[in-house]
Amino acid sequence: MNKHKMITEKGNSRVLMLFGQLEKLNRESMLVDPEIARQITAKILHLIQTQEKTRKEIVSKGSSGMEVILATLEVSSRGGRRIGVFVSKGGTGILLQLVISASKESPPSEEVMLQLHSVLAKVGPKDRKFGVKARLNGALNVTVNLLKQNLQNYKLLLPCLLVLQVYSSNTVNAVSLGKNGVVELMFKIIGPYSKKNTKTNAQRAVVHVPILLHIYQDWHRNDTRHRHILIRKGILGCLKNITNIKLGRKAFIDADGMRILYNTSTECLPVRTLDPLINTSSLIMRKCFPKNRLPLPTIKSVFHHQLLRVPAGGPVAQLYNQPLGMDDVVDESDNNEDAEAENDMENEVEEKDHHNDDIETDINNLRPKETHSRPFEELKIYERFFMELSEDFQVMQYTFVFGLIIVFLGMFSYFRYTLVLVCNGNVSFPALDLDTINITKDQDGCGDHTHSQTHPGAGLEQELVQGLERVALDGAGPQGGGGGGNKHNRQPPILAGGVAARLGGEGEEMLAEDWAEEEESSEEGVLHVPDTALLLPLHDPDLYVEMVKSTSSVPQFSEVAYPDYFGHVAPTSREHILERVYGVQRTKIFQDIERLIHPNDILDKVVYDLDIQSCPVVDGGESLKFNSQFESGNLRKAVQIRKFEYDLVLNSDINSNHYHQWFYFEVSGMRVGAPYRFNIINCEKSNSQFNYGMQVLMYSVQEAISGRPRWVRTGTDICYYKNHFSRSSIAAGGQKGKSYYTMTFSMTFNHKDDVCYFAYHYPYTYSTLKMHLQKLEALRTPQTYLREDVLCETLGGNSCPLLTITAMPESTSNDQICQFRNRPLVFLSSRVHPGETNASWVMKGTLEFLMGSSPLAHSLREAYIFKIVPMLNPDGVVNGNHRCSLSGEDLNRQWQNPSPELHPTIYHTKSLLQYLAAIQRAPLVFCDYHGHSRKKNVFMYGCSLKETVWETNISATSCELHEDLGYRTLPKILSQMAPAFSMASCSFVVERSKEATARVVVWREIGVQRSYTMESTLCGCDQGKYKGLQIGTRELEEMGAQFCVALLRLKRLTSPLKLRNHAHLLDVESDLTETRCKVQSLAGPLKDIQRLVPKPLVRCLSCVLRVVVLLGGEPSPQTEVLSALEQVFIKDLSVLCSFHLSLVPD
């Protein structure tokens, strides 16, 4: 017995010794070796497990052993890995059991409870089942009771509240705690502090909203040194959660919460450290702002086009079946119970790609179809669009030779005269009359090129010298000859309706007087404008008006917008992405909140309304004048809110009730220097590049008249945010409680009596396309095969053009004709979405390059037959739609089963591709040009079975995933050549929502492996040479040209090995290198090259020069000149003026 007693005492003393060591280690935690601590705790654990009495003494009241262990755990829990090991060993359950055991003591040990809850607050978040364990063990009530008994014990209160927060992360626990009076308990805790310093629960807390507001005001007034920001933020957090429900928002408004938070936030604005309070207050006020209806009688488009056949289902069918007189602007969903989730970040992080749940997971839908859906007999009617595949060119043999003879004789005479002028030094180039205009499409886009004298042809020199990085766009420079110094008097555009294009405001009278002085005999005033044909070879104002007259529109437009009439010359200076001013969004939001707080300051005056057809423009004298009744225009209503602030409402797409994004309207009657603010209040997308540096576009008529006809990026304080105008469930596609978004920008005008136009992106109308096609036809040379067909007629009565471009065969021999017919096809399309105007500018660059006479263009035409549909949705473009055609449907979602009655352009375009597949001539490349509103750079979407499967959990064998990686070749080439192109932004994953798009259908049904959508940003670039710059028409057209050059390189890569060095396929790099060397050796630089002439004529020119050289008897520099001329396509006969060679004797 004595022996056993001695053993026990010895064991207890050993335990006390070990605890002493452990406590000492806790005090020296920064210097202790973890291995020593583990050894000591292992020995204590062994003693506890082997001796029952020792265990009881350790956990008994008054024992210091438990405090030491808990203190040790608290120190150890500072490392995340240690906590994880502790949880994995069941430590959480042991701690909860200790809480229950300690609570049974009367009274519970405050020190033990403090340490237990401190450890639980750190360990709990790492255990996913912590809430369940606590509820099952009964620890919830223990902590709540401990709080109730220690409301004034601030030392114990904090760890208990932290544990309660972890408990509440479990929904069941949160409801249980709410029922047990925890909400009321929280307010008992908050109350004393203020003197010194989930849905059901939110309903219980509604009655406390006035108290919370009073407490927040109290803290705001007394916390003058801002030492208790976390407490103030916590109070706002309570208000934020309570106002998530309808009752909470009503209580907030009734308690004058809008005014309280507005005033306190305004006082916080000068202190940057208080931004978290301002942002949370702003979020609460936006959420509680009473929902308003859009100031419209209906959300349907103000224009209507009756469909002969209405779709059986879908949004268009719902629109036609909607009862007459139904209010579709608001409905019961506007009073929904729950508020939308908001982002309380002032400067949102730009959207990145997240996990995509839309990826196709059925591998059968990813395999190409093996059978054609239509019999060949139906498709044979499309043979007439492929005449080049059966053309024999017998007539060409005679006309071509006769033409060469005529041209040769004319050239000899012309060159003889030109060389005499050069010799005598009498040649001078007239300077352009427009100041500081550089029409050269330099690919840098950099520098401010202000030349009083511009030499024609500088673009080709850049192409020759700079190589692949600078692909010149043919026809970019001004045309030589002509009276360069005089301005042309042009009539303002008058259409069939007899309404002239106007200058608004007082400027109309002023200009009328000027016109009268210039031409007193004219009944109509003439507009003094520069001859834009000198600046824009493919633009002719008079031709444009003729094109407009033949364009059909639903509103029957009778006016022409000045920017479309004058044309656009790309700016010579760079336009940087706008750096967002910190706090601009909340400033705009506070100005909107002032409407509710100070309603007497609001004018609410309608100044423009298309719903009032009799008089859409309301002239109030002190207000701006608006207009959008011209081709591609979109502005439905303008409401003057304050003296210099206007709310603007966009029109829906025809036969639709949404898609509000594209805008294009005219403004006049402005005051110089006044700070105008424009708010487009019915945008629908949840985010926009306007939040990340994108600016709106403005065109000033006064600037155009002064010689600067161009769209420029403009606007300050630009931001995009959710507003207080509610979207009905009808407008939101069945979703309830949605809001519209506001795109706002500020603007000051520089000219009195100006007329300015604002647009979402660079406008490109259907009439502009028709004009450009006519001008391109005039540029055609005998070496170019160009045919324009009418693919079909649209619902609105406009024709859809189809272009065929390739090179004429060199002769009518069987070999040449066979080579011509067997060229691979490239199929391009564009502008299926009317609001993506950048797609048309890229297509313009492609067309100009293809029709040019550079060596690359000629080789490209010899390599491919191009089939191009430059505008798939003419009706949508004409009528100012953003996404739909007149059928009210997105045409790029109709490719699987297009209707010939509702979607004729898609039906017939797909039929062309089906015909090619049926005759085993499927295109090598299919590319649909688009614009992207949420991303930067230019990039491609393609289709890949492998990459789609890799993004999902589909199990597939290697044989099922066999796929040629050739689909990546073209994007990779573009990433190496085009400075705006980003390979990192490309994706080759097939998504379910995109299975009816052109890209996916052409890949699956037509079997085109290289089937792409090429997306061009509406904003700018964040990589490469154009990083930090907004994209302009120069860069977009360059992208179109670079796409062509990439196709040429693709041809070389995909050709059989024996054909890769074929004479007709230029090796771009070596050709440019050789040419550069020869150009540098010329007596004069090739700076004045303008228009390209056919290759045979270059040989004729060579012969003429050889004759002249023989006559002149001077052999020295001529050999180099002739050698270079044989390699270079001369752009104009006047090129010889720049050589300064004295080849002809006096």
Automatic annotation (TrEMBL):
<dbReference type="Pfam" id="PF25571">
    <property type="entry name" value="TPR_CCP1_N"/>
</dbReference>
<dbReference type="InterPro" id="IPR050821">
    <property type="entry name" value="Cytosolic_carboxypeptidase"/>
</dbReference>
<dbReference type="GO" id="GO:0005829">
    <property type="term" value="C:cytosol"/>
</dbReference>
<dbReference type="GO" id="GO:0005634">
    <property type="term" value="C:nucleus"/>
</dbReference>
<feature type="active site" description="Proton donor/acceptor">
    <location>
        <position position="1015"/>
    </location>
</feature>
<dbReference type="InterPro" id="IPR016024">
    <property type="entry name" value="ARM-type_fold"/>
</dbReference>
<keyword id="KW-0479">Metal-binding</keyword>
<feature type="compositionally biased region" description="Acidic residues">
    <location>
        <begin position="330"/>
        <end position="350"/>
    </location>
</feature>
<keyword id="KW-0963">Cytoplasm</keyword>
<feature type="domain" description="Peptidase M14">
    <location>
        <begin position="762"/>
        <end position="1051"/>
    </location>
</feature>
<keyword id="KW-0645">Protease</keyword>
<keyword id="KW-0378">Hydrolase</keyword>
<keyword id="KW-0121">Carboxypeptidase</keyword>
<dbReference type="GO" id="GO:0005739">
    <property type="term" value="C:mitochondrion"/>
</dbReference>
<dbReference type="InterPro" id="IPR011989">
    <property type="entry name" value="ARM-like"/>
</dbReference>
<keyword id="KW-0812">Transmembrane</keyword>
<dbReference type="GO" id="GO:0004181">
    <property type="term" value="F:metallocarboxypeptidase activity"/>
</dbReference>
<dbReference type="Pfam" id="PF18027">
    <property type="entry name" value="Pepdidase_M14_N"/>
</dbReference>
<feature type="transmembrane region" description="Helical">
    <location>
        <begin position="395"/>
        <end position="415"/>
    </location>
</feature>
<dbReference type="GO" id="GO:0006508">
    <property type="term" value="P:proteolysis"/>
</dbReference>
<dbReference type="InterPro" id="IPR033852">
    <property type="entry name" value="CBPC1/4"/>
</dbReference>
<keyword id="KW-0862">Zinc</keyword>
<keyword id="KW-0539">Nucleus</keyword>
<keyword id="KW-0482">Metalloprotease</keyword>
<dbReference type="InterPro" id="IPR000834">
    <property type="entry name" value="Peptidase_M14"/>
</dbReference>
<keyword id="KW-1133">Transmembrane helix</keyword>
<keyword id="KW-0496">Mitochondrion</keyword>
<keyword id="KW-0472">Membrane</keyword>
<dbReference type="InterPro" id="IPR040626">
    <property type="entry name" value="Pepdidase_M14_N"/>
</dbReference>
<feature type="region of interest" description="Disordered">
    <location>
        <begin position="330"/>
        <end position="362"/>
    </location>
</feature>
<dbReference type="GO" id="GO:0008270">
    <property type="term" value="F:zinc ion binding"/>
</dbReference>
<protein>
    <recommendedName>
        <fullName>Cytosolic carboxypeptidase 1</fullName>
        <ecNumber>3.4.17.24</ecNumber>
    </recommendedName>
</protein>
<comment type="similarity">
    <text>Belongs to the peptidase M14 family.</text>
</comment>
<dbReference type="Pfam" id="PF00246">
    <property type="entry name" value="Peptidase_M14"/>
</dbReference>
